[in-house]
């Protein structure tokens, strides 16, 4: 981050998301709790993950982001993969989809992780904030510890 930027600063470009802050804090309390980022994803000063924009074919109904976040603990019993998030505009509203972790490293299958609801569009169309709620398929990623409909952290796209 640039010197002089306050602790709430967001990146200039990308999808920034805390996933579920209470869960991230929980992982931090585990003796072997860990998080790893790759393929351009980084953890900012405010402990939010930022996924970089990804090149995409001309599909205006999809905003593609790259990168991978892997969270783990409990001697490997807890292993969560969130890879290549996309915001897809569907007939029933926007969703956040990710690569299906059950097929990793195959990247051809995707699942809807969260339903999104536009919360705020700021700075014209350059920043969008979405409230996110867990889908049934997304609950599986968290080993069903959170039921569908659980509120996740707000997602910010710049």
From TrEMBL:
Domain Htaa residue range list: 15-155
InterPro entries for the chain: Htaa
Highest taxon listed in the record's lineage: Bacteria
Protein name, per record: HtaA domain-containing protein
Lineage summary: Bacteria, Bacillati, Actinomycetota, Actinomycetes, Mycobacteriales
């Amino acid at each position: 981050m640039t010197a002089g930027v306050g602790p709430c600063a967001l990146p200039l470009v990308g999808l920034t998301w805390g996933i579920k802050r209470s869960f991230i804090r929980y992982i931090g309390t585990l003796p072997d709790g860990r998080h790893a980022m790759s393929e351009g994803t980084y953890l900012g000063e405010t402990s939010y993950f930022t996924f970089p924009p990804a090149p995409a074919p001309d599909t205006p109904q999809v905003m593609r982001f790259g990168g991978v976040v892997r969270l783990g603990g409990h001697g490997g019993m807890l292993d969560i993969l969130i890879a290549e998030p996309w915001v897809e505009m569907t007939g029933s509203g926007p969703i956040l989809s990710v690569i299906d972790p059950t097929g990793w490293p195959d990247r051809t299958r995707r699942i809807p992780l969260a339903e999104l609801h536009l919360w705020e569009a700021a700075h014209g169309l350059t920043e969008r904030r979405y409230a996110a709620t867990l889908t049934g398929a997304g609950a599986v990623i968290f080993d069903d510890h959170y039921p569908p409909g659980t509120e996740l952290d707000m997602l910010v796209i710049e």
